[in-house]
Every structure is written in structure tokens, then in C-alpha cells.
Amino acid sequence: VSTQSTWGLFTPANMSSKPAAAKPAAKAAAPKAAAPKVPVPESILKKRARNDKLKAAQVQKQAETKKANKEKRKVIFKRAEKYVKEYQSTEREAIRLKHVARTTGQFYVPSEAKLAFVIRIRGINGVSPKVRKVLQLFRLLQINNGIFVQLNKATINMLRIVEPYIAYGYPNLKSVKELVYKRGYAKVNHQRVPITSNEIIEKALGSKGIICVEDLVHEIFTVGPNFKAATNFLWPFKLNSPNGGWKAKLNHFIEGGDYGNREEYLNALIHTMV
After folding, report:
1. Where do the H-state alpha helices sit in the chain?
2. Which of 117, 119, 242, 91 is nearest to 170 (CA)?
3. Which residues pair with 148 in a beta bridge?
4. What is residue 26's predicted lDDT score, i.e. its pLDDT?
5. Nearest to residue 257, comparing CAs of 174, 192, 163, 186?
6. Beta strand 191-194 with 145-150: parallel, antiparallel or unpaired?
7. What's the rounded Cα separation, in Å, for the pair 204 and 186?
8. Rounded distance, CA 57 to CA 53, Å?
9. Is the predicted pLDDT of residue 6 greater than 80, yes or no?
């Protein structure tokens, strides 16, 4: 085939000619038949109903708990207000009696302390069996352990037996609050549990009318009728060594040492150990 004849095939007339008409579109596919519905097993239906019922019960319980907690917070707030007024009235009464005694030329003798806080300051070397037993009864098993003690004839005699091994005195309201709020642990099922909510206190002491931390502090500070239950609920306090350490454990406090009764001066020691 010659080149001329080959080029003759692609003439302008041929190039300008219209393309061939497109084929008609294919017919639309027929719709598929709907799949038959598979019946849901009865066990799944029962499970769904049970889950819905449990969820509804849970939502209702949460709403009731929220409402009860709201009412409980109001009660706790009112109790705290009542305790604050009681503490203030007691303090004002003491100030008034001092003023009356001073103006009339008499002496004001405050009532004897009913509450003591006891701290163990010495270890187990050279401890006699009697002293060891008294320390065990006080639950003072480690150095720098502390407990609240109600002062009566029996406990005062016990304190005298173990006096060379302990430092004790009369805590004020601030010291009691610091100890309970900062170092307070509960004894739940013979385990040391941190007091993270009032529910722990209410569960253990609710039958005694103690439902919150403020109730616990009030019962301890005032040495109320449920003092024993309140102190047994608390784990013995584990305190730090005082700032600067102990001065002289073998000497009495009035001789410049550490052991023995410090009376109101114990509060400064507690502040350095909490």
C-alpha cells in the first residue's frame, strides 16, 4: 500500500464526520425481592426486657440516692452549725466566769479535763510485762502512735504506769479536728481504711447517731456517751516525729524532757507531728 493511499484515509472530510450514534441504554435492573424477616430468638427478647428493667431500676435508685444525699447534707450542715454555736457558747461562758472572778477578787478554777491524747515516744527495749500490757490495752503498739483517752480513775492509774514511755496532755478543739481530718483512718473489718466520705462513718456508727465527721469530732471532744465506740472506730493515729526530733526521752517534761503530762502544751506538739 502506498503512503499516498494511507494518508488519503484521514481526510478533513473524514475527520469532521459525526461519531456513530451511541447504543441505547440498557434497561433498569429489576428490584430484588425483600429478604424474609428472621424471627428474634425468645432468649434475646427476654434479655433485652431484663436489661431495660435493670436500667430503669438503676436510674430510679440513683435519683432516690441523690435526693437522700441532698437531704442528708442539709441535716449535716444544721448539726455543724449547732456544734459551732455550742463551742462558742462554752468558750464565752469560761471567759465570763474568769472576768467575774477577776472583778470580785476571787479565783476561777476551770473544770478538770475529761479528754487526753496519748502519744507513745519510746520503743520496746527494757519494757516490763506490766507496762507492755498497758500499752497494748491503749493500742499504742508503735512509736509515735496516738489515741484519745477518756480520763477517769482507771485510765489515770494506767497512764501513771506507762508515763515514762508516753507523752500526753489535753487537746483543744483545733487539735482534735486536725487529727481526725488529716490523720484519721477508720477500722473497718479489722482493716485500716481512709475516711474518704461520711458514708463510712454512717455505716459503722449510724446506730449511735454519728453520721458525719463533725459528729465524730463532737463526740470525741465532748467525751459523749458514745465516746468508746467513736474511738474504737478510729485506727490509732500514726504521727510523724516532731520537728527537730525529741529532746530527751528519759527526762520528764517539767525537767526539760519529753515524757509525762504536758497539759495544754500538748497542742503545740500535735501541731508539729500532724
Report:
1. 3-8, 12-15, 42-103, 129-137, 153-161, 173-183, 198-205, 213-221, 227-233, 266-273
2. 117
3. 117
4. 54
5. 163
6. unpaired
7. 9
8. 6
9. no
Quick check: 220 and 181 in contact, CB under 8 A?
no
Give Cα separations from 67 to 77, 160, 211 (angstroms): 16, 52, 17
Contact 110, 81 (CB under 8 A): no
Chain segment 170-221, per-residue pLDDT in tens: 999 999 999 999 999 999 999 999 999 999 999 999 999 999 999 999 999 9
CA-to-CA distance for 196 and 231, rounded, in angstroms?
17
Rounded Cα gap, residues 73 and 66, in angstroms: 11
Percent with pLDDT over 90 in the chain:
75
CA–CA separation, 110 and 37 (whole Å): 89
Question: How many whole angstroms from its chain centre is CA 70?
Answer: 19
Report the alpha-carbon distance of residue 241 to residue 253 in Å, rounded: 17
CB atoms within 10 A of CB 53: 10
* Cell numbers 500490757: residue: 133
Distance in angstroms (rounded) separating the CA atoms of residues 162 and 160: 6
Mean pLDDT of 140-144: 95
